[in-house]
Every structure is written in structure tokens, then in C-alpha cells.
Amino acid sequence: MLTWFDDATALGEFAARIEPLRVAAEDRIGALEHFEGYCWVCNGIRRMLVRSGAMLGDRPSLREGLLCEGCGLSNRGRLMHGAIRDECRRLAAGPGALLLLERISPLHAVLSRDLPGLIGSEYLGDACAPGSECDVRGHGKVRNESITALSFADASFKVVAHSDVLEHVFDYRRALRECYRVLVADGSLVFTCPFFAQRHESLMRAEVLADGRIVHHETPEYHGDPLNAEGILAFWHHGWQLLDELRAAGFREARLGVTYDVYAGFVSNNYPGGGYGLMLPIVIRARK
Ligand SMILES: [Zn+2]
């Protein structure tokens, strides 16, 4: 399902090739309420709700949208599901071999049906001891893990996965080293984050100083967060440098997977006018 890319040139050629289809299809889909397509998670034709509530100007974000009425997963959720499933198959990952750094999401619900024993967690902050479970209203007991200080022993998992976390972690290089540490040899890290394919260097939008204060270098950008009504600050706009940093963290391979399949609900985020904010359905995979 996914095509894997190593560099901006090859991805740019792919993006240019699909551009006429992308513009025409997304203008059309973005104006619909529902879209009928093939869900690779449900393995059947399902109605997909186009709008999730996330907007890019006056256009619905199709990265967060196209919610399948069968499994509940968005475009991005189904992309993660496919990439995680592929790596779990490759590694014959059994119960307890997958760490998903989310727990109160539709992706966790769907994956835990197929992969019983997967460990899911959320970042609950200092009020809950690392590695322990605390009550989260409406969700029962939820395990607390910080991606920069995981409570697990080295080489605990075959697959580690997280969705749109890294842009919110100021010390994301430490997060990458932690993911590497808890993976077995040949284990896989699979994740999404907003990826700015026109950038090489990641843009530091805000910074945490030594005394803990936050300094903004750009207009503060907050993303929706199920655990925080005010949203969560994005410290970074990540670019291709992130793949170099995965290799610097120790991973032997770091690649970017893309699929563009309108009928299966894998389209871009529908960014107005394309350009800098345009994100194809991209998932990042690194192997130890
Ligand atoms: Zn589905």
C-alpha cells in the first residue's frame, strides 16, 4: 500500500505527478458531507464522514477527516493502522510486542481488537507517576508515559508507534532516542507528525528555556488535544532533517511512506492553494 521515499526530490516528483488528480479530487471531496470508499481497516466499502471539525482556513482538513463509519478511523488513522500492521506482520509481533503512545483514541480501540495485549498510554503529566495508571474521566484507568522518559526496560517492544506527538515535544531528539532504546534489534518505530516536505531543517516555533519558560519565535500554533481543551502547543514544524535525526538516534533506516488513493480515502490534508502547508498522507518508519 505504501511507497517509501528517502529524499525530497523523489517525493516532489511523486507529488507533481498526482497534482492534477489531487486538486480535482480534493476540491470535490472537500465539498461533500460523506464520501463512499474502500476502507482498508474494515476491508469493505464504507461511508466516510468528510469533516472531523478540523479546518484549514475555510476547507475541511482531510488528513483528520474522512472518518470511516465502520471503524471510526480518519485518513491519518487508517494510514497509521496500515503501517503498524505491516511492521507487526514483518516482525511476527505477538501480545505485548506493540507500544502505542495513545490510549483514548479510535486507533487504540481498533488495534487492540487485532493485537490483544498491546500497551497503550497517554501523557498525563506530573500528577500521575510514570508507568502507573490513573483515572481519566470517561476513559477509566490510563497508563501514563512520557515519550522523553519511557518507564520500560531496553528492548521491550518490536513496534513502537505514535501519532502527531513529536511536533509537541521540544526535546524531540531525546524522544527519538527513547523510542530506539525500548525497541528490540530490527524493531520498528512508526509515526506520523505534521511533515513540511518543502523544509529540510525543522523550524523551531517555540523554545523551552533552562528555567522552564517558553519563548515563542513564531505565532503560537495550538493543535487539538483530547486531554486538554485549550489545545497543545506545536514547538516544531518538522522537515527532512527528522530522517537524519532518526539515523543519528541509532536507527539503521529511516524512510517516509506515502500512499495516494482517493477511493480508499488517502488524500492530502486539503491545504488551501497547496504549497508549504500541503501534507500528503505520510507516515514515517524507522528500523533499528
Ligand atoms: Zn473502516
- Tell me the fraction of residues in β-strands, as a range: 25-35%
Question: How far do the termini sit from each other?
Answer: 22 Å
The tally of structural domains comes to 1
Query: How many strand elements?
Result: 20
**Distinct small-molecule ligands in the complex:** zinc ion
Helical/strand content category: alpha+beta
* Topology as a string of helices (H) and strands (E): EHEEEEEHEHEEEEHEEEEEEEHEE
Structure description:
- By secondary structure, the protein is of the alpha+beta class.
- The chain is built from 5 helices and 20 strands.
- The mean pLDDT is 96.
- It has a single domain (3-287), classed as Vaccinia Virus protein VP39 (Rossmann fold).
- Helix 2 packs parallel to helix 3 (106-114).
- The longest helix is centred in the first third of the chain and has 23 residues, at 8-30.
- 39% of the residues are buried.
- The chain has helices at residues 8-30, 75-90, 106-114, 172-182, 241-248, and strands at residues 3-5, 34-39, 44-49, 55-56, 59-60, 67-68, 98-100, 119-120, 133-136, 140-143, 157-163, 183-192, 203-204, 206-208, 214-216, 222-225, 228-233, 236-237, 253-258, 282-287.
- The strands form 7 sheets. Strands 1-19-20-12-11-7-8 form a 7-stranded mixed beta sheet. A 3-stranded antiparallel beta sheet has the order 2-3-6, with no helix packed on it.
- The structure holds zinc ion.
- The site of zinc ion has 8 residues, from loops.
- Zinc ion binds at residues 39, 41-42, 46, 68, 70-71, 73.
